[in-house]
Design a protein that fits this description.
The chain has 294 residues and is of the alpha/beta class. It is built from 13 helices and 9 strands.
Length: 294
């Protein structure tokens, strides 16, 4: 006698799940011109269809939902985001960088020297990530200040490396680029995400951010840093600690005071970020902002 008790259960699901329907579709009894045509594919399994220009809004939604759902499942409550260059060497690689530039032009040698000088920020990013990860702060059953980077090399790698050495998981938000781009080896595999859209990636950087450490960097770092400043300046986002590492670098490439003197920003806007040189200074500012006690 067949047990059909679930058929009479008020709580039982009456429709097959998409995964089950997908398996049924794979078991098509006969290949015909009709079943072989792309039009016959289930829409959610038809990659060519999903990649059409008209489906861009759906792809936006998917890139918003996938990381959001997986981070919720991972009990990530808040993040410490680390922005910074993909070119600054680790202290261990600084000498090799200088040696490789020895026989190159004076300009290339100077660039190598400047990058090597900034190797200290790799160390500070590592130390900050490790320090915060070792604190293992949990509130409401969720992990707080989970280290999050762009998932790439250099400063990003330093952040993930520091968290890993503290025995903690960390997040990497990678982006598809025309040249080869892969997550660094310290990102926690199930928290390693890949994005097509820069806009959605930047949104995920800030959705859970409770502090952002910004190290010397290039266009990408500028983009992320200035978007964050703009969101807080305009009131679209509530203030959070923004730790700006490398005063000598930033004041050389951006004249913040001149912006205020020209009247294009308010003098008070310069208080949106906090200058730092060490991991300890950064954490002290975060702890004071949130009134955290060790």
């Amino acid at each position: 006698m067949t047990d059909n008790s679930t058929d009479h259960d008020l709580k039982a699901r009456k429709f097959y799940r998409a995964g089950e329907e997908s398996r049924f579709a794979e078991q098509a009894p006969e290949r015909t011109p009709q079943t072989a045509h792309p039009a016959y594919k289930l829409a959610f399994r038809d990659t060519d269809f999903l990649l059409r220009d008209e489906l861009r809004p759906i792809r936006f939604q998917l890139e918003l939902l996938k990381p959001e759902m997986l981070l919720d499942e991972a009990r990530v409550g808040s993040t410490l985001v680390i922005y910074g260059s993909a070119r600054i060497p680790s202290p261990a690689k600084a000498e090799a960088l200088l040696a490789a530039a020895k026989d190159k032009s004076a300009h290339e040698q100077k660039v190598a020297e400047r990058l090597a000088e900034k190797a200290k920020y790799y160390e500070e990013a590592y130390r900050l990530a490790r320090m915060v990860s070792e604190k293992a702060i949990i509130e409401d059953g969720k992990r707080q200040f989970v280290v999050t980077t762009g998932g790439g090399p250099s400063i990003m790698e330093a952040g993930n490396h520091g968290a890993s050495d503290a025995g903690s998981e960390s997040i990497g938000l990678n982006i598809v680029l025309p040249h080869e781009q892969a997550p660094n080896s310290y990102v926690t595999p199930y928290l390693s995400f890949q994005f097509h859209y820069f806009a959605l990636r930047k949104m995920h950087f800030l959705l859970r951010a409770r502090a952002v450490a910004v190290f010397p960097g290039g266009f990408g770092t500028f983009d992320e840093f200035f978007e964050l400043l703009t969101l807080i300046q305009t009131g679209k986002m509530k203030p959070i600690p923004i730790l700006l590492f490398g005063r000598d670098f930033w004041t050389r490439v951006i004249d913040f005071e001149a912006l205020a003197e020209e009247g294009t920003i308010n003098q008070s806007d310069l208080d949106l970020f906090h200058w730092c040189e060490t991991a300890e200074e950064a954490w002290d500012h975060i702890a004071a902002f949130y009134e955290l006690k060790d």
